[in-house]
Hints:
The protein is built from twelve helices and 20 strands.
Amino acid sequence: MKKIMHASGITILVASLIGCSAGSPATQSSVQPTSTLAESSPSPTSNQAVSSAPSQGNTAQSSELSNTMADYAVKKKPTYTRTNEMYFQDYGTNPFVSTATDHLSTFAADVDTGSYTVMRSYIKDGSLPPPEAVRVEEFINYFPTAYPAPEKQTFAIVADGGPSPFYKGTQLVRIGIKGKEITAEQRKPAKLVFVIDVSGSMDRENRLELVKKSLNVLVDQLQPEDTVGIVVYGSQGRVLLPPTSMDDKHRILAAIGSLTPEDSTNVEEGLTLGYEMASRSFEHAAINRVILCSDGVANVGETGAKGILRSIEDYSRKDIYLSTFGFGMGNYNDVLMEQLADKGQGNYAYIDSFSEARRVFTEALTGTLQTIARDVKIQVEFDPKKVEAYRLLGYENREVRDEDFRNDKTDAGEVGAGHSVTALYEVKLRPASNTELGTVRIRYHDAASQKVEEVAQPVQVQSELAPDLKFLAAAAQFAEILRNSPWAEEGSLRDVLDLAKSSAKGEHELEFVRLVKDSLAIRGR
Length: 525
Protein backbone atom coordinates (compact mmCIF):
# COMPACT_ATOMS: atom_id res chain seq x y z
CA MET A 1 0.00 0.00 0.00
CA LYS A 2 1.89 3.01 -1.24
CA LYS A 3 -0.50 5.90 -1.83
CA ILE A 4 -2.50 7.60 0.85
CA MET A 5 -5.45 9.91 0.30
CA HIS A 6 -5.20 13.20 2.14
CA ALA A 7 -8.55 14.55 3.25
CA SER A 8 -9.30 18.18 2.66
CA GLY A 9 -8.82 20.41 5.66
CA ILE A 10 -7.08 23.50 6.87
CA THR A 11 -3.46 22.42 6.62
CA ILE A 12 -0.35 24.52 6.78
CA LEU A 13 3.28 23.96 6.03
CA VAL A 14 5.35 24.99 9.03
CA ALA A 15 9.08 25.20 9.34
CA SER A 16 9.35 22.91 12.34
CA LEU A 17 7.45 20.32 14.34
CA ILE A 18 7.94 22.29 17.52
CA GLY A 19 7.94 25.96 16.82
CA CYS A 20 8.10 28.75 14.31
CA SER A 21 11.83 28.52 13.67
CA ALA A 22 13.43 26.94 10.64
CA GLY A 23 13.89 23.18 10.78
CA SER A 24 12.53 20.01 9.30
CA PRO A 25 9.29 20.81 7.45
CA ALA A 26 6.07 18.99 8.18
CA THR A 27 2.50 19.48 7.04
CA GLN A 28 0.47 20.33 10.10
CA SER A 29 -2.80 21.75 11.19
CA SER A 30 -2.91 24.75 13.48
CA VAL A 31 -6.35 24.65 15.05
CA GLN A 32 -8.10 26.73 17.64
CA PRO A 33 -9.43 24.57 20.45
CA THR A 34 -13.01 25.62 19.77
CA SER A 35 -13.04 24.43 16.16
CA THR A 36 -15.80 22.06 15.12
CA LEU A 37 -16.13 19.39 12.46
CA ALA A 38 -17.07 20.69 9.04
CA GLU A 39 -20.26 19.10 7.75
CA SER A 40 -19.07 18.89 4.18
CA SER A 41 -17.20 15.79 3.03
CA PRO A 42 -13.75 16.11 1.48
CA SER A 43 -13.52 16.19 -2.27
CA PRO A 44 -10.48 16.10 -4.53
CA THR A 45 -9.71 18.75 -7.08
CA SER A 46 -11.08 18.09 -10.54
CA ASN A 47 -7.83 16.90 -12.11
CA GLN A 48 -7.09 14.24 -9.46
CA ALA A 49 -8.41 10.71 -9.85
CA VAL A 50 -9.57 9.06 -6.66
CA SER A 51 -11.16 5.64 -6.09
CA SER A 52 -14.85 5.98 -5.43
CA ALA A 53 -15.77 5.79 -1.78
CA PRO A 54 -18.17 3.06 -0.65
CA SER A 55 -21.76 4.03 -0.13
CA GLN A 56 -23.62 2.74 2.88
CA GLY A 57 -25.84 -0.16 1.92
CA ASN A 58 -24.45 -0.32 -1.63
CA THR A 59 -24.09 -3.95 -2.73
CA ALA A 60 -22.54 -3.20 -6.10
CA GLN A 61 -18.87 -4.13 -6.21
CA SER A 62 -16.43 -2.37 -8.49
CA SER A 63 -14.47 -4.83 -10.64
CA GLU A 64 -11.79 -2.29 -11.36
CA LEU A 65 -10.39 -0.71 -8.25
CA SER A 66 -7.93 2.10 -8.60
CA ASN A 67 -4.39 0.93 -7.84
CA THR A 68 -3.21 4.28 -6.61
CA MET A 69 -4.79 7.38 -5.16
CA ALA A 70 -3.50 10.88 -5.69
CA ASP A 71 -2.53 12.77 -2.60
CA TYR A 72 -4.53 15.92 -2.25
CA ALA A 73 -4.89 18.63 0.33
CA VAL A 74 -6.29 22.11 0.65
CA LYS A 75 -3.52 24.35 1.90
CA LYS A 76 -4.00 27.83 3.23
CA LYS A 77 -1.44 30.48 3.88
CA PRO A 78 -0.09 30.18 7.45
CA THR A 79 -1.81 32.82 9.53
CA TYR A 80 -1.28 31.29 12.94
CA THR A 81 0.25 32.66 16.08
CA ARG A 82 1.75 30.67 18.95
CA THR A 83 -1.15 31.50 21.25
CA ASN A 84 -3.99 29.01 21.71
CA GLU A 85 -2.68 26.73 18.99
CA MET A 86 -3.11 23.01 18.63
CA TYR A 87 -0.59 21.28 16.36
CA PHE A 88 -1.76 18.21 14.45
CA GLN A 89 -0.61 16.48 11.29
CA ASP A 90 -2.77 15.01 8.53
CA TYR A 91 -1.34 11.63 7.57
CA GLY A 92 -3.99 10.99 4.93
CA THR A 93 -6.42 8.10 4.56
CA ASN A 94 -5.60 4.61 3.35
CA PRO A 95 -7.37 3.63 0.09
CA PHE A 96 -8.70 0.27 -1.03
CA VAL A 97 -5.85 -1.68 -2.57
CA SER A 98 -6.38 -4.29 -5.29
CA THR A 99 -4.75 -7.62 -4.46
CA ALA A 100 -3.90 -7.96 -8.15
CA THR A 101 -1.46 -5.10 -7.58
CA ASP A 102 -0.34 -5.66 -3.99
CA HIS A 103 -1.58 -8.57 -1.90
CA LEU A 104 0.67 -7.68 1.06
CA SER A 105 -0.16 -5.12 3.75
CA THR A 106 2.70 -4.27 6.12
CA PHE A 107 2.81 -1.87 9.04
CA ALA A 108 4.43 -1.26 12.42
CA ALA A 109 2.60 -2.07 15.64
CA ASP A 110 1.29 0.92 17.58
CA VAL A 111 0.08 1.06 21.19
CA ASP A 112 -0.40 4.85 21.39
CA THR A 113 -3.76 6.17 22.59
CA GLY A 114 -3.23 9.94 22.60
CA SER A 115 -5.57 10.72 19.73
CA TYR A 116 -8.55 9.20 21.51
CA THR A 117 -8.16 11.22 24.71
CA VAL A 118 -7.53 14.41 22.72
CA MET A 119 -10.88 13.75 21.02
CA ARG A 120 -12.52 13.22 24.39
CA SER A 121 -11.22 16.57 25.65
CA TYR A 122 -12.67 18.38 22.64
CA ILE A 123 -16.08 16.77 23.04
CA LYS A 124 -16.20 17.41 26.78
CA ASP A 125 -15.45 21.07 25.98
CA GLY A 126 -18.40 21.15 23.60
CA SER A 127 -16.70 20.88 20.20
CA LEU A 128 -15.62 18.17 17.81
CA PRO A 129 -11.92 17.58 17.16
CA PRO A 130 -10.35 18.78 13.91
CA PRO A 131 -10.08 15.89 11.41
CA GLU A 132 -6.27 16.02 11.57
CA ALA A 133 -6.38 15.15 15.28
CA VAL A 134 -7.98 11.76 14.62
CA ARG A 135 -5.83 8.62 14.21
CA VAL A 136 -8.16 5.65 13.80
CA GLU A 137 -5.78 3.06 15.25
CA GLU A 138 -5.49 5.02 18.51
CA PHE A 139 -9.28 4.99 18.91
CA ILE A 140 -9.31 1.21 18.40
CA ASN A 141 -6.35 0.54 20.68
CA TYR A 142 -7.64 2.69 23.52
CA PHE A 143 -10.05 -0.02 24.62
CA PRO A 144 -8.92 -3.03 26.67
CA THR A 145 -9.24 -6.37 24.91
CA ALA A 146 -9.90 -9.87 26.20
CA TYR A 147 -7.39 -11.54 23.88
CA PRO A 148 -5.91 -14.68 25.45
CA ALA A 149 -2.35 -14.15 26.66
CA PRO A 150 0.34 -16.39 25.15
CA GLU A 151 1.43 -19.33 27.29
CA LYS A 152 4.98 -19.80 25.96
CA GLN A 153 5.59 -17.35 23.12
CA THR A 154 5.91 -13.58 23.31
CA PHE A 155 2.71 -12.95 21.35
CA ALA A 156 -0.64 -14.64 20.76
CA ILE A 157 -2.53 -13.78 17.56
CA VAL A 158 -6.26 -13.26 16.99
CA ALA A 159 -7.37 -13.14 13.33
CA ASP A 160 -11.13 -13.15 12.78
CA GLY A 161 -13.90 -11.18 11.15
CA GLY A 162 -17.29 -11.21 9.52
CA PRO A 163 -19.77 -9.02 7.61
CA SER A 164 -19.29 -5.30 8.15
CA PRO A 165 -22.07 -3.75 10.24
CA PHE A 166 -21.86 -0.58 8.13
CA TYR A 167 -21.24 -1.60 4.50
CA LYS A 168 -23.05 -4.44 2.78
CA GLY A 169 -20.88 -6.68 0.67
CA THR A 170 -17.81 -5.84 2.77
CA GLN A 171 -16.10 -7.96 5.41
CA LEU A 172 -14.50 -6.51 8.51
CA VAL A 173 -11.30 -8.37 9.43
CA ARG A 174 -9.52 -8.04 12.78
CA ILE A 175 -5.83 -8.67 13.36
CA GLY A 176 -5.06 -8.66 17.07
CA ILE A 177 -1.92 -9.50 19.02
CA LYS A 178 -1.52 -9.89 22.76
CA GLY A 179 1.83 -9.62 24.52
CA LYS A 180 2.89 -11.91 27.33
CA GLU A 181 1.94 -10.69 30.77
CA ILE A 182 4.38 -9.79 33.52
CA THR A 183 3.24 -9.03 37.05
CA ALA A 184 4.44 -5.96 38.92
CA GLU A 185 6.49 -8.25 41.16
CA GLN A 186 8.08 -10.00 38.15
CA ARG A 187 9.07 -6.92 36.20
CA LYS A 188 12.63 -5.63 36.12
CA PRO A 189 13.75 -2.81 38.43
CA ALA A 190 12.96 0.56 36.90
CA LYS A 191 15.46 3.40 36.53
CA LEU A 192 13.15 6.29 35.67
CA VAL A 193 13.91 9.91 34.85
CA PHE A 194 10.98 12.34 34.83
CA VAL A 195 11.51 15.25 32.46
CA ILE A 196 8.87 17.81 33.38
CA ASP A 197 7.83 20.93 31.48
CA VAL A 198 7.45 23.80 33.98
CA SER A 199 7.22 26.57 31.38
CA GLY A 200 4.63 29.32 31.61
CA SER A 201 2.19 27.49 29.34
CA MET A 202 1.97 24.68 31.92
CA ASP A 203 0.31 27.14 34.30
CA ARG A 204 -2.76 27.22 32.05
CA GLU A 205 -5.77 25.07 32.98
CA ASN A 206 -3.80 23.78 35.99
CA ARG A 207 -1.75 21.56 33.66
CA LEU A 208 1.18 21.38 36.03
CA GLU A 209 -1.09 20.44 38.92
CA LEU A 210 -2.43 17.50 36.87
CA VAL A 211 1.17 16.50 36.07
CA LYS A 212 1.99 16.48 39.78
CA LYS A 213 -1.07 14.39 40.65
CA SER A 214 -0.32 11.99 37.78
CA LEU A 215 3.28 11.45 38.83
CA ASN A 216 2.20 10.90 42.43
CA VAL A 217 0.02 8.04 41.16
CA LEU A 218 2.94 6.61 39.20
CA VAL A 219 5.33 6.82 42.14
CA ASP A 220 2.82 5.05 44.37
CA GLN A 221 2.96 2.03 42.02
CA LEU A 222 6.75 1.67 42.02
CA GLN A 223 8.69 -1.05 43.80
CA PRO A 224 11.38 -0.60 46.52
CA GLU A 225 14.22 -1.41 44.07
CA ASP A 226 13.12 1.33 41.61
CA THR A 227 14.70 4.77 41.38
CA VAL A 228 13.42 8.15 40.20
CA GLY A 229 15.37 11.19 39.03
CA ILE A 230 13.74 14.49 38.04
CA VAL A 231 14.76 17.09 35.46
CA VAL A 232 12.67 20.21 34.90
CA TYR A 233 12.82 22.77 32.13
CA GLY A 234 11.44 26.22 31.55
CA SER A 235 13.78 28.74 29.97
CA GLN A 236 16.59 26.41 31.02
CA GLY A 237 16.82 22.78 32.03
CA ARG A 238 18.10 21.78 35.45
CA VAL A 239 18.32 18.73 37.67
CA LEU A 240 15.73 18.92 40.44
CA LEU A 241 16.36 15.50 41.95
CA PRO A 242 19.24 13.07 41.26
CA PRO A 243 18.35 9.36 40.93
CA THR A 244 16.73 8.52 44.25
CA SER A 245 15.72 5.14 45.64
CA MET A 246 12.10 4.44 46.45
CA ASP A 247 13.34 3.89 50.01
CA ASP A 248 13.38 7.70 50.06
CA LYS A 249 9.90 8.00 48.57
CA HIS A 250 8.96 11.08 50.62
CA ARG A 251 11.87 12.98 49.03
CA ILE A 252 10.64 12.08 45.54
CA LEU A 253 7.09 13.18 46.34
CA ALA A 254 8.36 16.39 47.94
CA ALA A 255 10.31 17.24 44.77
CA ILE A 256 7.20 16.66 42.65
CA GLY A 257 5.15 18.79 45.03
CA SER A 258 7.61 21.67 44.75
CA LEU A 259 7.08 22.15 41.00
CA THR A 260 6.04 25.67 39.96
CA PRO A 261 5.66 27.20 36.47
CA GLU A 262 8.44 29.36 35.03
CA ASP A 263 9.01 31.14 31.70
CA SER A 264 9.88 29.94 28.19
CA THR A 265 10.16 26.32 26.98
CA ASN A 266 13.54 24.71 26.30
CA VAL A 267 12.51 21.10 25.67
CA GLU A 268 15.85 20.31 24.02
CA GLU A 269 17.86 21.14 27.13
CA GLY A 270 15.41 19.32 29.39
CA LEU A 271 15.55 16.13 27.33
CA THR A 272 19.34 16.35 27.03
CA LEU A 273 19.76 16.54 30.81
CA GLY A 274 17.21 13.77 31.27
CA TYR A 275 18.98 11.41 28.90
CA GLU A 276 22.35 12.24 30.44
CA MET A 277 20.98 11.32 33.86
CA ALA A 278 19.47 8.10 32.50
CA SER A 279 22.77 7.23 30.83
CA ARG A 280 24.75 7.71 34.04
CA SER A 281 22.40 5.50 36.06
CA PHE A 282 21.98 2.90 33.27
CA GLU A 283 21.81 -0.76 34.25
CA HIS A 284 21.60 -3.58 31.69
CA ALA A 285 19.33 -5.68 33.90
CA ALA A 286 16.89 -2.82 34.56
CA ILE A 287 14.25 -0.78 32.75
CA ASN A 288 15.91 2.47 31.69
CA ARG A 289 13.26 4.97 30.68
CA VAL A 290 12.79 8.72 30.35
CA ILE A 291 9.23 9.96 30.97
CA LEU A 292 8.36 13.32 29.41
CA CYS A 293 5.40 15.33 30.74
CA SER A 294 4.69 18.38 28.59
CA ASP A 295 2.32 20.24 26.30
CA GLY A 296 4.94 19.73 23.57
CA VAL A 297 5.43 23.37 22.61
CA ALA A 298 9.02 24.66 22.55
CA ASN A 299 10.38 28.12 21.82
CA VAL A 300 13.92 28.12 23.26
CA GLY A 301 16.97 26.01 22.42
CA GLU A 302 16.94 23.45 19.61
CA THR A 303 13.97 24.42 17.45
CA GLY A 304 14.58 22.00 14.62
CA ALA A 305 12.86 18.68 15.22
CA LYS A 306 15.56 16.72 13.42
CA GLY A 307 18.17 17.44 16.08
CA ILE A 308 15.99 16.34 18.97
CA LEU A 309 14.63 13.24 17.21
CA ARG A 310 18.09 12.13 16.09
CA SER A 311 19.45 12.27 19.65
CA ILE A 312 16.48 10.34 21.00
CA GLU A 313 16.91 7.66 18.35
CA ASP A 314 20.57 7.28 19.28
CA TYR A 315 19.70 6.75 22.96
CA SER A 316 16.99 4.21 22.10
CA ARG A 317 19.64 2.08 20.41
CA LYS A 318 21.37 2.02 23.79
CA ASP A 319 18.18 0.68 25.44
CA ILE A 320 17.18 3.99 27.03
CA TYR A 321 13.59 4.49 25.97
CA LEU A 322 11.18 7.45 26.04
CA SER A 323 7.49 7.60 26.91
CA THR A 324 5.62 10.88 26.40
CA PHE A 325 2.54 12.08 28.25
CA GLY A 326 0.73 15.14 26.95
CA PHE A 327 -1.19 17.70 28.99
CA GLY A 328 -3.32 20.71 28.09
CA MET A 329 -5.73 21.98 25.44
CA GLY A 330 -4.76 25.06 23.47
CA ASN A 331 -1.10 25.59 22.63
CA TYR A 332 -0.53 21.83 22.52
CA ASN A 333 1.77 19.99 20.07
CA ASP A 334 0.37 16.51 19.41
CA VAL A 335 2.76 16.04 16.48
CA LEU A 336 5.92 16.42 18.52
CA MET A 337 4.73 14.31 21.46
CA GLU A 338 3.73 11.44 19.17
CA GLN A 339 6.94 11.53 17.14
CA LEU A 340 9.18 11.81 20.19
CA ALA A 341 7.68 8.60 21.58
CA ASP A 342 7.99 6.94 18.18
CA LYS A 343 11.70 7.71 17.89
CA GLY A 344 12.26 6.93 21.55
CA GLN A 345 10.73 3.45 21.14
CA GLY A 346 8.07 4.18 23.72
CA ASN A 347 4.39 5.02 23.91
CA TYR A 348 2.42 8.26 23.75
CA ALA A 349 -0.66 8.98 25.84
CA TYR A 350 -2.60 12.16 26.43
CA ILE A 351 -3.68 12.80 30.02
CA ASP A 352 -6.90 14.82 30.07
CA SER A 353 -8.02 14.01 33.59
CA PHE A 354 -6.99 12.41 36.87
CA SER A 355 -9.04 9.35 35.89
CA GLU A 356 -6.92 8.92 32.76
CA ALA A 357 -3.76 9.27 34.83
CA ARG A 358 -5.04 6.53 37.12
CA ARG A 359 -5.78 4.28 34.14
CA VAL A 360 -2.37 4.80 32.52
CA PHE A 361 -0.24 4.68 35.66
CA THR A 362 -2.01 1.89 37.54
CA GLU A 363 -3.90 -0.43 35.19
CA ALA A 364 -1.24 -0.38 32.46
CA LEU A 365 1.94 0.64 34.28
CA THR A 366 3.96 -2.55 33.81
CA GLY A 367 3.24 -2.54 30.08
CA THR A 368 4.14 1.14 29.91
CA LEU A 369 7.49 0.52 31.60
CA GLN A 370 8.73 -2.89 30.44
CA THR A 371 9.17 -3.54 26.72
CA ILE A 372 8.83 -7.18 25.69
CA ALA A 373 9.45 -6.74 21.96
CA ARG A 374 11.02 -4.11 19.70
CA ASP A 375 10.53 -3.41 16.01
CA VAL A 376 7.23 -5.27 15.94
CA LYS A 377 5.99 -5.54 12.35
CA ILE A 378 2.73 -7.00 11.12
CA GLN A 379 2.22 -8.29 7.58
CA VAL A 380 -1.06 -9.61 6.22
CA GLU A 381 -0.87 -11.67 3.04
CA PHE A 382 -4.27 -11.71 1.35
CA ASP A 383 -5.06 -14.52 -1.07
CA PRO A 384 -5.77 -12.80 -4.44
CA LYS A 385 -8.02 -15.72 -5.43
CA LYS A 386 -10.35 -14.94 -2.53
CA VAL A 387 -9.83 -11.25 -1.79
CA GLU A 388 -10.43 -8.61 -4.44
CA ALA A 389 -9.33 -5.59 -2.40
CA TYR A 390 -8.61 -4.49 1.17
CA ARG A 391 -8.27 -1.28 3.17
CA LEU A 392 -6.41 -0.88 6.45
CA LEU A 393 -8.25 1.43 8.85
CA GLY A 394 -5.66 3.83 10.23
CA TYR A 395 -1.92 3.24 10.68
CA GLU A 396 -1.18 5.71 7.87
CA ASN A 397 1.96 6.93 9.63
CA ARG A 398 3.05 3.37 10.53
CA GLU A 399 3.43 2.03 7.00
CA VAL A 400 6.37 -0.31 6.36
CA ARG A 401 7.49 -1.34 2.87
CA ASP A 402 6.51 -4.92 2.11
CA GLU A 403 10.08 -5.80 1.27
CA ASP A 404 11.25 -4.51 4.68
CA PHE A 405 9.14 -6.92 6.70
CA ARG A 406 12.14 -9.23 7.11
CA ASN A 407 14.67 -6.42 7.09
CA ASP A 408 15.57 -6.47 10.76
CA LYS A 409 17.29 -3.09 10.55
CA THR A 410 13.96 -1.40 9.82
CA ASP A 411 12.59 0.55 12.77
CA ALA A 412 9.05 -0.39 13.79
CA GLY A 413 6.82 -0.37 16.86
CA GLU A 414 7.49 -1.45 20.44
CA VAL A 415 5.08 -3.41 22.62
CA GLY A 416 5.07 -3.61 26.41
CA ALA A 417 4.14 -6.45 28.73
CA GLY A 418 0.48 -7.38 28.50
CA HIS A 419 -0.22 -4.81 25.79
CA SER A 420 -2.50 -5.65 22.90
CA VAL A 421 -2.52 -4.21 19.38
CA THR A 422 -5.52 -4.32 17.05
CA ALA A 423 -5.83 -3.50 13.37
CA LEU A 424 -9.04 -3.59 11.33
CA TYR A 425 -9.41 -4.11 7.58
CA GLU A 426 -12.35 -3.59 5.28
CA VAL A 427 -12.18 -6.42 2.74
CA LYS A 428 -14.01 -7.04 -0.53
CA LEU A 429 -14.25 -10.73 -1.39
CA ARG A 430 -14.37 -12.46 -4.73
CA PRO A 431 -17.44 -14.63 -5.46
CA ALA A 432 -17.60 -18.02 -3.74
CA SER A 433 -14.72 -17.26 -1.38
CA ASN A 434 -14.48 -19.46 1.70
CA THR A 435 -13.66 -18.36 5.23
CA GLU A 436 -9.83 -18.46 5.01
CA LEU A 437 -8.60 -15.26 3.39
CA GLY A 438 -4.84 -15.36 3.88
CA THR A 439 -2.12 -15.32 6.54
CA VAL A 440 -0.95 -12.83 9.14
CA ARG A 441 2.68 -12.77 10.25
CA ILE A 442 4.24 -10.98 13.23
CA ARG A 443 8.00 -10.35 13.24
CA TYR A 444 9.79 -8.79 16.20
CA HIS A 445 13.00 -8.55 18.20
CA ASP A 446 12.33 -10.36 21.46
CA ALA A 447 13.65 -8.35 24.43
CA ALA A 448 14.26 -11.44 26.59
CA SER A 449 16.01 -13.72 24.12
CA GLN A 450 17.58 -10.89 22.10
CA LYS A 451 16.60 -12.85 18.99
CA VAL A 452 14.36 -12.03 16.03
CA GLU A 453 11.26 -14.19 16.00
CA GLU A 454 8.37 -14.63 13.58
CA VAL A 455 4.96 -16.21 14.12
CA ALA A 456 2.05 -16.73 11.71
CA GLN A 457 -1.61 -17.64 11.74
CA PRO A 458 -4.37 -18.02 9.10
CA VAL A 459 -6.87 -15.18 8.67
CA GLN A 460 -10.43 -16.46 8.82
CA VAL A 461 -13.85 -14.81 8.85
CA GLN A 462 -17.06 -16.04 10.38
CA SER A 463 -20.73 -15.58 9.59
CA GLU A 464 -21.06 -12.92 12.29
CA LEU A 465 -18.74 -10.53 14.12
CA ALA A 466 -17.75 -11.36 17.68
CA PRO A 467 -19.43 -9.01 20.21
CA ASP A 468 -16.19 -7.23 21.13
CA LEU A 469 -15.36 -6.76 17.45
CA LYS A 470 -18.74 -5.10 16.92
CA PHE A 471 -17.78 -2.49 19.49
CA LEU A 472 -14.36 -1.91 17.89
CA ALA A 473 -16.14 -1.51 14.55
CA ALA A 474 -18.22 1.28 16.12
CA ALA A 475 -15.09 2.97 17.50
CA ALA A 476 -13.35 2.78 14.11
CA GLN A 477 -16.38 4.14 12.24
CA PHE A 478 -16.68 6.99 14.73
CA ALA A 479 -13.06 7.93 14.04
CA GLU A 480 -13.60 7.65 10.28
CA ILE A 481 -16.56 10.03 10.44
CA LEU A 482 -14.76 12.51 12.69
CA ARG A 483 -11.77 12.68 10.37
CA ASN A 484 -13.98 13.22 7.29
CA SER A 485 -12.79 9.99 5.67
CA PRO A 486 -14.07 9.79 2.08
CA TRP A 487 -14.83 6.13 2.79
CA ALA A 488 -17.33 7.15 5.47
CA GLU A 489 -18.84 10.17 3.76
CA GLU A 490 -22.31 8.65 4.10
CA GLY A 491 -21.58 7.21 7.52
CA SER A 492 -24.06 7.93 10.28
CA LEU A 493 -23.23 8.78 13.87
CA ARG A 494 -26.62 7.38 14.82
CA ASP A 495 -25.65 4.03 13.34
CA VAL A 496 -22.42 4.20 15.34
CA LEU A 497 -24.40 4.96 18.48
CA ASP A 498 -26.82 2.08 17.92
CA LEU A 499 -23.99 -0.42 17.45
CA ALA A 500 -21.99 0.94 20.39
CA LYS A 501 -25.01 0.83 22.73
CA SER A 502 -25.75 -2.78 21.81
CA SER A 503 -22.14 -3.97 22.29
CA ALA A 504 -20.66 -1.77 25.05
CA LYS A 505 -19.91 -3.46 28.36
CA GLY A 506 -17.08 -2.00 30.44
CA GLU A 507 -16.49 1.43 31.96
CA HIS A 508 -14.52 2.82 29.01
CA GLU A 509 -16.97 1.46 26.44
CA LEU A 510 -19.96 2.98 28.20
CA GLU A 511 -18.12 6.31 28.31
CA PHE A 512 -17.63 5.99 24.55
CA VAL A 513 -21.40 5.71 24.12
CA ARG A 514 -21.82 8.99 26.00
CA LEU A 515 -19.17 10.65 23.80
CA VAL A 516 -21.02 9.57 20.65
CA LYS A 517 -24.24 10.99 22.08
CA ASP A 518 -22.49 14.26 22.86
CA SER A 519 -20.98 14.42 19.38
CA LEU A 520 -24.44 14.02 17.88
CA ALA A 521 -25.67 16.93 19.98
CA ILE A 522 -22.69 19.08 19.01
CA ARG A 523 -22.99 18.27 15.34
CA GLY A 524 -26.71 18.85 15.32
CA ARG A 525 -27.57 15.72 13.40
